Amino acid sequence: MSPFTPAFFKFFEQLEKHNNKEWFDANRSTYEKEVKEPFKKFVTLILNELAKDQPDILKDASKSIFRINRDIRFAKDKSPYKNHVGAVFSRSGTKDKRACYYLHIGARDIFIGGGMYEVDKDHLEKIRQEIYYNNDAFKKILNEKKFKAYYGEVQGERNKVLTPDYKEFAKQQPLIANKQFYYMGKLKKEDVLHKDFDKTVLKYFNAAAGFNEFMMHAISE
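The structure assignment produced for this chain is given below.
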């Protein structure tokens, strides 16, 4: 099901033109009714569905949805609000840096993604070791038909300098150089408004389950 209506997108279209506290306060009731409540309802639905096969998923939408307020302390753009809503589907909410899924819906960009975006030094070394010693399994996951159809390939910034072993290995598996491991598939407004939007999101997440499991296994070693 989809709890979203065209009013959801209309709110963000207007917010782009009037991104200030005065306008937002005047339209807060619209935000609550057309954006915040439907998104929380949808995130709760997806979390509950994911938890059927992944019981360690955190089933708390409040801790999984990012705030609409932007952190403008060090930003040149002082617009106080994001022009989208976003939620992470993980084991401990928005602060979780382990492998997870992500949903982003706005007036301009709509996408489903996941993986590991912020990777600390210890986790990065473990992931590289896992890729190095289990590259066949890794390549099989990357080449799965659904993963390639929905996401194409794994993205992320790469280190320019590698140890000699990894540098040589990168010739056959370039992702060993990554310091981020994320994937992303774009959608349209029509997808969000469709009655089967929940099924679409779950299909995308299921297509990436193998990749996330590989990452989680790597960092738990």
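Interim note for the steering committee: The two ends are 38 Å apart (CA to CA). The mean pLDDT is 96.
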